[in-house]
Amino acid sequence: MPVRSGSLCSTRKPLCEAGEPPHHAYLPHNIIISLMAVMEDGHSPEMSMFTAEGVMGLIAAPGTNQVLGRCVARASGTASQINLDKMHSFMEALIARAPENSL
User: 65: exposed, middle or buried (C-beta count within 10 Å: 0-12, 13-18, 19+)?
Assistant: First the structure.
């Protein structure tokens, strides 16, 4: 599986922006990642948060393949980063090799 472990996440740069297709999933090690709504008036209420028990970025808005909001690290720290294109290719290869009746 194509995982980059220990990627440094900074509070200065968003991990993803609302409306963009997701490119990576993040598994937080020692940070909290927030999914923030982007409002027209500049406010950014938090919609969800992801900690060491979760993963951020595997699900996009249904039917759009777009990130639902801006994803930001609440403090600098590390997370494993998974390239979603490579992960999907890896999963498709596993499914193709699986015996027909095992799924």
Answer: exposed
| Highest CATH level, class, for 3-102 | mainly beta
pTM of the model: 0.74
Q: What is the pLDDT of residues 72-92, one digit of tens each?
A: 998 888 888 888 888 888 888
Q: What residue ranges in the chain does DSSP mark as E strands?
A: 3-9, 24-28, 33-36, 46-50, 70-73, 77-83
The pLDDT, as a whole number, for residue 41 is 93
Residue 70, beta-bridge partner list: 36
Quote the pLDDT of residue 45: 92
Residues in the chain, overall count? 103
Residue 6, SS3 per DSSP: strand
**Closest C-alpha among 9, 14, 19 to residue 68:** 19
